[in-house]
Design goal:
Strand order of the largest sheet: 4-9-6-5
Oligomer: single chain
Helix content: 40-55%
Mean pLDDT: 80
Shape: extended
Low-confidence stretches: 180-185
Number of helices: 18
Number of strands: 9
Strand content: 5-15%
């Protein structure tokens, strides 16, 4: 998308729609729009005031002139000095102006009128548009060999029909948001008209199935002449003279190819095309209408009065000769009450189908409450005294630390541990030495061990390496020296 100043600039011509005194400004602009449609473009302040003073209480001519000046400042109106009715010097000094709508204001007011009548006009699913678009695509090869005027008219008509198809089906689909908000007062009306709605939607689906696939095939067949046709359309659009605007051929070409690309993607042959998506949406709406009508029918049926049924039941109970007969009638009409069914997976002692519940031996079943707060009762026990085991573990740990310390101290010769002079060491000793070396490299080469002694790490010259022999293998590493400063 190409961004220029016309896209990002503020549209001040729409200010009159939302400012504090928007009601007065809208009446003034509507008056100008009505006269514009009557080919009466120019109005003066007196004409506007005479039309509005009966609709706005306390409205004066000065208020009218101030409102007109504000509209001129915003660009909604264009003012012109009226020199035709000047008879005195005073008339010349007190300038009289006449006003007309700007081009932006005409389009804005036309849009407001369309918005006001949107609910009245509504939307529809015109299957005839699909047939018209199909016919126009069939004419693509014939207009490609015709004149530029015929080609340009064909292109404009095709795009208008395509835009109208998009706009109307989208507006019509929005009407089906009432399914969740339909009240009971209109439920009967909805049930009565749901068959017509379904028939209407199915007709639209049939139109898509009949013409949509054909349009996609026609577009594929015309792929060889597409570029030639579009280039001629671009030339026709570029040749149209424009006032107060400059449009490059590249911008027109981008717009034309984008419109054709949208047409191809709408009637595409793949499953992700807009045509297939519309068919799925429409079929979903048909299903929702059917389900919603069924729910409404059930809800209205359950709310109907059962007075006559209860009166008949009462008469039947009055005719019973005994309480036992009344019990039998109750079981027939209302079924068994307060019945609890319990099943278990125990093994039966007999496989006889004629064996009844009283012939089987009893079985005890423990039933637990089905509540979230239920917890089985736990048996409490005293806390065992583990102080001896803890003391034993502590003594063993201290002995292992002292043993490890004695092994490390035995490796120190003349206040140093020379790594390449070490004998074969165990894995634990190797881990301690390597951890000291690692920590010393992060503390500027010096480190205090967990035994409280300090040492300085001496790096080997020329980054010399050696092989350290361990009980579980060999390790190649730099020939570090741990200097304890003659403390050992």
């Amino acid at each position: 998308m190409k961004i220029n100043s016309s896209v990002t600039k503020a549209i001040t011509e729409t200010k009159y729609l939302s400012v504090d005194n928007h009601a007065r400004y809208r009446l003034i602009m509507r008056l100008f729009y009505i006269n514009y449609n009557r080919i009466n473009y120019w109005l003066n302040a007196e004409d506007v005031y005479n039309e509005l003073r009966e609709n706005i209480s306390g409205y004066t001519l000065d208020d009218c002139k101030n409102d007109l000046d504000s509209l001129v400042e915003w660009g909604s109106l264009i003012s012109d000095h009226d020199t035709e009715r000047i008879f005195t010097i005073s008339d010349f000094k007190n300038k009289r102006f006449r006003y007309q709508m700007s081009e932006y204001a005409v389009e804005i007011e036309r849009l407001t009128v369309k918005l006001e009548n949107m609910r009245v006009e509504g939307a529809s699913l015109d299957t005839g548009l699909l047939g018209t678009i199909r016919t126009q695509i069939e004419e693509m090869r014939s207009v490609a060999d015709g004149s530029n005027d015929a080609l340009h008219t064909w292109w404009r008509s095709l795009n208008e029909n395509f835009k109208r198809l998009n706009r109307e089906y989208q507006d019509y689909m929005k009407c089906f948001s009432f399914f969740e908000s339909e009240d009971n007062s209109s439920a009967k009306q909805f049930i009565a008209r749901k068959d017509d709605i379904i028939k209407y939607l199915r007709s639209f689906v049939k139109g898509i199935q009949k013409n949509g696939t054909a349009v996609a095939e026609l577009l594929d067949d015309c792929e060889d002449i597409k570029n030639a046709v579009l280039e001629r359309v671009i030339d026709c659009e570029f040749s149209i003279p424009r006032i107060n605007s400059t449009v490059s051929r590249g911008e027109i070409a981008e717009n034309v190819y984008a419109l054709y690309s949208n047409l191809r993607s709408w009637f595409g042959s793949d499953e992700n095309s807009e045509m297939d998506r519309i068919m799925n949406i429409t079929n979903g709406i048909i299903r929702n209408i059917t389900n919603y009508a069924s729910i409404l029918a059930e809800s209205t049926g359950t709310m109907s009065s059962r007075k006559d049924e209860y009166r008949l039941f009462a008469e039947m109970f009055m005719d019973c000769e005994s309480a036992e007969d009344a019990h039998r009638l109750s079981s027939l009409l209302f079924g068994l009450t307060n019945t609890c069914h319990i099943t278990s997976d125990r093994e039966r002692e007999t496989e006889s189908i004629s064996s009844g519940i009283y012939d089987e031996p009893p079985e005890e079943i423990v039933i637990k409450p089905r509540v979230l707060t239920y917890r089985e009762k736990q048996q409490q026990s005293a806390i065992a005294d583990k102080s001896e085991a803890k003391k034993r573990s502590y003594d063993e740990y201290i002995k292992s630390i002292e043993k490890r310390q004695s092994i490390i101290e035995s490796l120190i010769r003349n206040g140093r541990i020379v790594m390449e002079e070490l004998p074969v060491i165990d894995p634990q000793t190797r881990s301690v030495l390597l951890s000291w070396i690692s920590r010393a490299t992060g503390h500027d080469g010096s480190f205090r061990t967990e035994y409280g002694t300090e040492f300085r790490l001496i790096y080997p010259e020329n980054d010399r390496h050696f092989v350290l022999s361990c009980e579980d293998g060999k390790l190649t590493m730099p020939a570090f020296i741990l200097d304890f400063g003659g403390t050992q």
